[in-house]
1,5-anhydro-D-fructose reductase (1,5-anhydro-D-mannitol-forming)
Amino acid sequence: MNWGLIGASTIASEHVIGAIRANGHEIISVLSSDAVRGANYAARHGIARSTTSLDELLGTQGLDAVYISTTNEKHHPQALAAIAAGKHVLCEKPLAMTPAEAAEMVRAAEAAGVVFATNHHLRNAGTHLAIRELIASGRIGRVLSVRVFHAVHLPPHLQGWRINDAAAGGGVIPDITVHDADTVRFCLGEDPVDVVAKAGTSGMGLGVEDSVMSVWSMPSGAMVQAHESFTHRFAGSGIEVHGTEGSIFGRGVMTQKPVGEVELVTVDGRSAVPFGTHDLYARSLGVFAAAVAGEGRPSADGVDGVKSLAVAVAVREAARTGQTVRVNYEGF
């Protein structure tokens, strides 16, 4: 497959370019709003072309798919343009600024017959796949509760619009809560019904929230407690799943790297759970390419992106109003 990058981004530089090439694919063009930055980015990464024109990129001969990693408010129009041009799309989370916009993107892709996916990298981690399998196989019985702790320190080179630009989709909720929503959905196989939340600033946010805590109700009766932040240097991250017959402790697993540990605790004692240490993004791109070839579906498709965004939007609304907010999945 031949790919175009919509956005000369850090995440593409650090993770996705290598993952595309690890699957034997080519990157033939990159779009940047700044011509000089785009040309330098292309030269640095061995990409033949750079452009400031979305139409020019989408018209590149031989282009099969695009990866969108621009700021959040641009995802919706850029994805719709790519879909209209007949290109397969892998889009960064959150898919859009609202679940309604994200749903429009999904339905447009369905109508055009192209593959549309969300880059929820965590569900490609060996740790998360192992946790999901433990739950699905009944090793901990009926799930009673989940605790997700994803309070980290956002490094300076990733701050920028994420901490000060609400119009671009800044804030910890669209940046991290969407990941945790997808992780819970992936591991439990069910969607949150409603949420309560508190959000605020704890040292980094400038006009947007940098910390949030929320509780979600699941259809099964399980409860989920989630904590996300940009300001916690030493908190660590992880997920705990507690059931009637045991508990799962995933420590250091909410990360872009295949690291951390998973422990199962039952009446028989504690045991370390083995997991694959493959590259998360390489797996995601491989599954995406298989879906383009008609084999299965992406690891996180467009509907997954709609639903993770819907949970995040509900969390933000609950924090704003102090009320319990029902999650609106836009008909999905």
User: Anything to note?
Assistant: DSSP finds ten helices and 15 strands in the chain. The chain has two domains: 2-120, 122-282+309-326. The chain has a mean pLDDT of 96.
